[in-house]
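Name: Phosphoadenylylsulfate reductase
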Amino acid sequence: MDIKALNEELRGKTPKEIIEWAIGYGKKSVVTTNFRPYEAVILHACADVKKDIPVIWCDSGYNTSNTYRHAEATIKQLDLNVKLYVPKQTAAHRDVVMGIPDIEDPKHKEFTEQVKLEPFRRAMDEHKPDVWFTNLRKGQTAFRDSIDILSLAADGMLKVSPFYDWSDEQMDKYLEEHNLGIETKYFDPTKVLGNRECGLHG
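Structure predicted for Phosphoadenylylsulfate reductase:
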């Protein structure tokens, strides 16, 4: 696969056209979400092309009440085919034995493994997709600036970011046009800084 050539070919396409191309290209597609701001955009766009696309939600157990309410509303509004994955240990249990370690704490790596990486691997092992839709956009982190619409995950899976070149203003307009919600009070316990990579992509 010539990723560079394909990215050039898709550069002028709409997100919907990119999604249609990727679903046609792969055998099995999934979209991942954490219901952070603007996630309703990618979820609406993917479900609009493939109604029953599996929506993998790895819930760390540390989301804000606002995020959980937003997630429930979005799932209902879009009738999403959600596949929920949670850590093997409850947040209440982990709070007692570990808490939320600071990024400099040696336990931070284990914490991230428990609440994010292990559930994600379990989800991918069960669904075995060859196409993975994400809502990565350039300008979010240094790593995300280094990828493109299409990139390859470590295991060779095709990672597709249909809204890669979109600005916040364009995303806001999409939300408004499709009467979608947004929730900005989002908390990721594995990230201390807003511009830090979450661990799944870097």
